Amino acid sequence: MTATIVHIGGYTAAGGGRGDGIVAARRDPRTGALTPLGTVAVTPSPSFLVRHPTLPVLYAVNELPEGEVSAFRTGERGELTPLGVRPTGGAEPCHLAVAPDGRHLFVANYGGGSVAVFPLDPAGVPGERSDLVVHQGHGPDPERQEKAHTHMVSPDPEGGPLLAVDLGTDSVYRYDLDAASGRLVPRASQVRTAPGTGPRHLARHPDGRRCWLAGELDGTVTAYELTPEGALHQRGRVDASERTGHVQPSEIAVGPDGRFLYVGIRGVGTVSVFALDGELPRLVAEVATGGEWPRHFVLTGEHLYVADERADMIRVFWVDPDSGVPEAVGEPVPVPSPTCVLP
Question: What's this model's pTM, rounded to 2 decimal places?
């Protein structure tokens, strides 16, 4: 197995963090070990990263009061060459995704409560923004839900509607993309969660028929059935953690074989593991990460990589293929203010 490159995003001084930009690391697929190679792009608060599906291009949000998105060409050793920067039209962009066909980029503006769309040229370079949809409304939490706060954009791998998760309005919005104009067309009304859920991120099952939503504010996981027409039917809710105290779910993801669901829990510093063998997720383990604030994680190969924003580290776990339970390996990898791990 040859080593692969991982890029790590995080907060810089512009966002109250300690990083300088995007860090590259070498990953050993056999042991899971990460070897940091240093900062490969000095850019302000690149808090979330994504790759183009077919081109050697990486995109980063710049989570600033006047949000931006940056594009980079990637080299074989992890080096990044700037391709362009575009304003996102909203404050604090925190998530982004590329359409499955690689022709458009979607950005979630958390502070702006909006979704921005950018056409991508044949080289993957973003053009002028083609749409900006601003959500309206609020939730019952006066501090966190005083207005819309879009937290994630999730394109359908099979070409169905784009799902936009909004923490501020307790909603999941559904949009079809008009590819010719680059504009979003709303599908009926948004899907509303229980009041005060504060939906943050959504995980799709590989079968395309199920998804789960992490509630940042109420500490839950909500299960949905996804129809071919793009409707979401709620199947129920479970607690994201068995711990007491400040439980604030962050990342949520389905394992590669579709048998287990993983949820990062900030405040108590754990990753919850759920079996997906019934109507609702069934908690099988809750594993301590060694830090307090697991902001993001990613599953790749046999390993789980957890970015702990406040502990300034990436923690590496081996995942038991039978039980789905992660087991820490090696020492934590020091990275300042990490918020996203991208294999």
Answer: 0.98
Write the pLDDT tens digit of every residue in 219-252.
999 999 999 888 999 999 999 999 999 999 999 9
Instruction: Return the SS3 of 282.
Output: strand
- Residues in CB range of 334: below 8 A, 6 or more apart: 36, 312, 313
Q: What is the DSSP string of 5-33?
A: EEEEEE-BGGGT-SB-EEEEEEE-TTT--
- Cβ-proximal residues to 275 (8 Å cutoff; 6+ apart), any chain: 259, 260, 261, 281, 282, 284, 324
- Segments of the chain scoring below 70 in pLDDT: none
Q: What residue has token string 């962050």?
A: 250
Give the count of beta carbons closer than 10 Å to the beta carbon of residue 206: 12
Paired residues of 222 in beta bridges: 213, 237
Torsion angles phi and psi, residue 14, rounded to 5:
-60, -25
Alpha carbon distance 234, 173 (integer Å): 15
Asked if 333 contacts 316 with a C-beta cutoff of 8 angstroms, the reply is yes
Identify the helix (H) or strand (E) that includes residue 73. strand 68-74
What is the C-alpha R_g of the chain?
Answer: 19
- Taking only the tens place, the pLDDT of each residue in 85-118 is 999 999 999 999 999 999 999 999 999 999 999 9
- Measured CA to CA in angstroms, residue 308 lies from 78, 256, 260, 339 at distances of 22, 22, 22, 7
C-alpha angle 200-113-336 in degrees, rounded to nearest 5:
55
